[in-house]
Each structure stands twice: as C-alpha cells, then as structure tokens.
Specification:
The protein is of the alpha+beta class. The protein has a domain of 44 residues. The chain has one helix and five strands; from the N terminus they run ββββαβ. The strands form two sheets. The chain has a three-stranded antiparallel β-sheet with strand order 4-1-5, with helices on one face. Strands 2-3 form a two-stranded antiparallel sheet. The longest helix is centred in the middle third of the chain and has 10 residues. The radius of gyration is 16 Å and the shape is elongated.
C-alpha cells in the first residue's frame, strides 16, 4: 500500500534499518503496516497521488461528545 507521511519521525528512527521518509514523501509498505500508520494519523493513503497537492496536516484526536443540541434549553 502506498502512503504519504504526514509527520517527520524522530531523528534516528528507522524501519528495517532504513530511515523513515520525510514528511510529505510517499512510501510503499505492507498493507497492515500502512493501514496502522494511516489509522494512527501519521500517514495518509497515497494510492491516488497528486503531485501538486500539499500533504494534509495530521488529524488531532477528538472524543465524541454527547449530543449537546438535545441538552440545550
């Protein structure tokens, strides 16, 4: 699976002895590993690559809140 990194990995971090790609660079990884990185918010699916498209910013984690509309008075 082809993904694009949304963050820079810590300096010196490696994957199988090779440095991680820089933020915005695409990389091909095994599907399970790539899906984990996408689900974690550190990468995005890059199967449809648009060269002119800037990398997306990583999504922040949010908790789902109760429906506040029904609680309003």
């Amino acid at each position: 699976m082809r993904i694009r990194m949304l963050v820079d990995m810590p300096e010196g971090a490696t994957r199988n002895g090779e440095p991680w790609p820089a933020k915005g660079e695409p990389v091909d990884l095994p599907t399970a590993e790539a899906a984990h990185l996408v689900a974690s918010g550190v990468a995005e699916d890059a199967t449809v690559e648009d060269v002119d498209q800037a990398p997306a910013e990583p999504r922040g984690r949010r908790r789902r809140t109760a429906d506040t509309e029904s609680e309003a008075t």
